[in-house]
## 1
Amino acid sequence: MNTIRTLAIALIVAGSLGLAYGGFSYTKDTTVVKLGSVELTAKEKETVNIPVWAGLAAVLFGGALLLMGNRK
């Protein structure tokens, strides 16, 4: 499998996942207070939203790459 076909499939899969889930969240540790060797940390939940247009663009661009990659 060549690199263009692999990239095209990865774009289609990533775009489809972006459309299906709409975003993802992760937990980030941040230092709140640090006094000498004592450190207080807090966990913050961050959310990243993926726009619908970005998912559609990835799927369409991946499909175009897949079709154009077969032409020689």
## 2
Amino acid sequence: MPARRAPRFSVFLGFLVCILVAEETGAQSQENGAVRFPAVVTDIDQNVIDIEALTRERNLVVVTLKATWCLVCQRQLVRLRSRLPELEACAVTFVVLAPGPAEELAAIRRRTGFDFPFVADEGLEIARSLDLVLTDEGIVPCMLQILPGGRIGWRQLGRNGAYFGDDELREYFDCTRAV
């Protein structure tokens, strides 16, 4: 019996090392500037959003929606909206990135009252450039701080009905002292 466990443990250990190396490689590629958010995007209302200017003026956070049908993602927007006074006090602003289509994103913006630019990434080109493609039609739910030059700063990956990451967002930007 111990002889059988050793190979399983070795496989598990090898798998763990691969994950750690992949995460480290991803972090290094972000630090080296390989992963960048576009300098300019067009929102669902056909407004051109100068991401570079926003990063110089405010703390820009991109909130991704997995898909338009993701109710947890929509709840995230409602949660963030309820915390806007404290987040705005520490100069946080948002752009929402989702697969689209634009009409459904407009409906989500109305329903959630989250009145920030929504960008329809229907071909997942932006998500792909950030290594955030979850499925052929889905984006990894997350929040990303965009720094000048489109570099990724703080990030929070994942979301579910019990975990949204908005507390980490407040803490990172130290919004608790700003109010």
## 3
Amino acid sequence: MNDTLGLLEEARQLAGDLGYRVREEPLGELSGGPCTVAGRRQVLLNLEQGAAERLDVLLRVLAADPRVAAEPKSRLLARRLAALGDG
């Protein structure tokens, strides 16, 4: 669980560095994902989901952004992002 929470925090920071605003809100049955509001990139995460599910949503958004390759990140986060890019 500590790895998950640490990765979630690191992924939030990375998303912020890339210009995303990460919002955590209760979204009912929706899992969340990327959106644009008033020209600003945002990622919605469902507070009703566990940390692992929120992390998965955020990692999918980051893995789809080609700018993520140039950003510094831990080895663990880099491996998780690479696994999504390969899959």
